[in-house]
Amino acid sequence: MSWPGTLNVKPINMKQLLIFIRKEFLHVFRDRKTLLMLFGLPIAQIVLFGFALSNEIKDSKIVVADYSKDAVTRQIINKIASSKYFDLEQSLQSATQLETAFKKGTIKMAVIFPENFGNDLIHTGKATIQVIADASDPNLATTITNYITQIITDYNAQLGNNSGQPLQIVPEVQMLYNPELRGAPNFVPGVMALVLMLVCTMMTSVAIVKEKELGTMEILLVSPFKTIYIIIAKLAPNLIISVINLFIILILSSVFLDLPVKGSVLLLVFDSILFILTSLSIGLLLSISAKTQQAAMMGSLMGMMLPTMLLTGFLFPIENMPLAMQWLSNIVPSRWYFIIIKKVMLKGLGFSSVWKETLILSGMCLLLFAISLRRFKIRLQ
Amino acid sequence: MSTLSFLLEKEFRQLLRNKQLLRTLLIAPVIQLILLPLAADYSVKNISIAVVDNDHSTFSRKLIAKITASGHFKLTGYTASYNEALSLVEQDKADLALQIPVDFEKGLVRENSQKLYVAIDAIEGTKANLGGAYLSSIVKDFNEDIRVNWQSAPAMAGGATGPQNLNERSSNEGPSSMVSGKGATFQTSTVSGDDAPQISVASSNWYNPFMNFKLYMVPAILVTLVTAMAAMQSAFNIVQEKESGTIEQINVTPIKKHIFIIGKLIPFLVLGIVIFTIGLGVGKLFYGVTPVGNLAVLYASLIVYLFAMLGLGLLISTYSGTQQQAMSLSFFFINIFNMMSGVFSSVDSMPGWAQAIVETFPPSHFIKIMRMVVLKGSGFGDIGYHLAAMALIGLFLNTWAVLNYRKTS
User: Fold this and answer.
1) Which domain holds residue A335?
2) What is the bridge-based pairing of β-strands B73-79 and B113-121?
3) CA-CA distance, A363 to B27, in Å (whole number)?
4) Is there a single domain that holds both residue A103 and residue A209?
5) How much is the pTM?
6) Hey, which of A52, B108, B171, B374 would disulfide with B354, CB 3.0 to 4.6 Å?
7) Which fold has domain B47-188?
8) Tens digit of pLDDT for each residue in B87-113?
9) Of chain B residues 95-154, which have a CB less than 8 A from chain A?
10) Contact residues on chain B for A307, CB-CB shorter than 8 A
C-alpha cells in the first residue's frame, strides 16, 4: 500500500495528469445548468447585496399621540416629521390602538405628548415627552431613541435662545472609508468570502462523492493512476472557475459598486487563491467522510453556511462574542480572508499589514490538504 | 387515498432508514441553534477607541474616564498624535479615534464652545452608527455634568475648578442655580441653570425591556435552520430519485401526478414541524425564549410557510436533472434569503425596489411573524397580511411546479 504522498516510483506523468484534468473539465462544462449557476450566483449576489443592503436607519415609521395640541407640540411634531430619520404615520387616539399598531409591526416608535404639555412648559419650565420604542430589535430602538433625543435637544437649544447654553462641547464626527454608511463596503468582502468558500467546498465534495455514488470511483482507484493525480484533477476545474469568479466579482464591485481595489491587486489575487485552495481542501476532507451526495451537500451547504456567515465577522463583530466563540472563529478560514480583503481592497494596505493573516491561511491550507491527502482512501470500504 | 398512504409509508421508510442524513437533519439544527445566537450579538459593548489627548487637563481626563467607564468602549490606544490614532483605525486595532484638542479646557471656558474630533471606521455601518451615537450621548452627559459643576462650583469653592475669568461668567447665570446647587437639582437641572424652559424625554422600551438581542435573533435563526434542513430537502429528494432512475418506475405506475407530489411533500412537512418544535425547546432551554403569543398561531404560520418553501423545492427539482444542479439552485436561493430576509440586516434600510423583491420571499414574512408572535404576542389578526402573502406565494410556486412537473422526461 503506497501512501499518496510518496511519489517515488516514477516521476509525475504530466501527460496522464493533463488527460485526467481534461476529463474533469469536460464533466464540469457538460453540465450547463450548474455552470450557469456557478457564474450567475456570485454575480447576482454581489450586485443584489451591494445595492440592497444598507445599515443606515432612516424613515422609521413612528406615530405621534398629541394630547395637548398646542403651538409647542405642533412645532416639535413638524421638526420630527421633517427629519429624514422618521416617517410620521397618522396619529392615534387611544392606547389600545397603539398596542395594535405595535403588534402589527406597522410602527417602530410612539411619541406621546401629555395633556397641557405647552402650558406646563411655559409655566413650570418643564415638560416631559414620553417615547415608547418597539425594542424587539434592540439596536433599532437604541438608535431611533437617540435620534428623537437629538431632535428634542436641538429644540431645547432653540428655546434657550441658541447660544444661551454655556460651555458647549460639539463632537465633530467623521465617518472614515464609508461616509454614506453604505452596506456594500462591508457586505461585498463578506459575500466574497462566503461565496468563494461555499462554492469551492460544495463543488469539490459533491464531485468526488458523485463518482463514489455512481461507482465510477472504483474504476479510477483500480487504474494505475496515483491518488494525488485524481485529487489534483478534481480540484483543477473548481480552482479555475473560482479564480474567474474572483475576477468577475472584483470587476463588478469596482464598476458598479464603486469599490475598486485600493491596494495591490496582485496581493489580493494571491491571497484569494490561497483562500480558494483552503476551501478546496475542506471540500476534499468532507468528501472523504460523506457517503452520499446528499450527505456531502448537507455537510458543506447547510452545515457550513450559517457558521461561516456568522463567524466571518461581517455580520456581527467577533469581539462581542463569548470567548469560546471567538476562539472557534479563529479556525474559520473566511474570517482571516475577510480581514485581508478589507485591508487590501478597502483600506489599500500592503503586505506588511496582512502577513499574519496570509501566514495563517497558508498554514490552514497546508494542514487541511495534508490531512485529506493522507485520509483519501484507496479503497472505498 | 390508499395510494397516498402507501406512498407515504415508502417515503417515511426511506427517510427513517437513512440514519446519517437523519442525524444531520436533527442534530445540526440543535447545535447551531445553541451556538449561533452566541455569535449573533450586536449589542455594541466593545467598541475599541483610540484617544489623543492634546490637552491633558482635568476636563479631558474626566471625559476619557467617563467614556471608558460607560461599558460601551474599551480604550485600546492612547497615542500622541491624531495620525497615530488613525493608523490604529487603519490596522483594525481601533474602531474609533477621538481627539481632544490643545487647550480644550481653557478654550471651553474662554470661548464657551469647543470641538472634539471623532473619526469612525464606517465600514461596518451599524457599529459606526451606534458607536457615534453612544459617544455623542456620553459627551452630552459630560457636558451637562461640567455645566452643573461649573454653576455650583463658584458659589462653593470660588475659582477652584476653573481659571480666573469664571467670575464674570457665573454672574450671567443668575442666582437660582447657585442657591439650589445641591443634590436634587443635579438631576433635574440636567440643563443649564438659566430659566430657559426645558423638555426632557422619558423613553421606555417595550417587548424587550432588557434589550436582550438574543430574543430577537433566536426566532429568526430558527427559521433559517428550518428552511435549510426541511424545506430544501424536497428538491434533493425528488432529484435523487431522478438520478438513480427510480422515478421512472413510479412514472410508469398509474399513480397520479399530484398524489406523487403530495406524497413527497408531506414527510418534509412533518420533518419541518419536528425540527421547529425541537428548535423552540432549545430556544427556551438555552436562551429563555418563550413565545409570548399563541403556539397555535406559530404552528399555523409554520405550516403555511413550509407549504410555500416545499413548493419552491419542488419547483427547483423540476428544473434540475442532477443533485448538483438542485443544490446550486437551492444554495442560490437560501443565500439570498439569509442575507435579505431581515435575519441579519434590516429590510427597512433597503431601497424601495429591494424591499419589493423581499416581499416575495416567504422567509421574510415568516421571520416577521416569528418575531411578532414570540416577542410581542401578536395574534392572527395582526399577522394576517404576512400569512396571506405566504399562502399566495405558496400557491403560486406549487401551481407552477405542478404544471412544470412532467412524468415523462
Assistant:
1) 19-53+182-375
2) unpaired
3) 31
4) no
5) 0.76
6) A52
7) D-Maltodextrin-Binding Protein; domain 2 (3.40.190)
8) 888 777 888 888 888 888 888 888 777
9) 108-109, 112-130, 132-133, 135-137, 139-140, 142-143, 146-147, 150
10) 32, 35-36
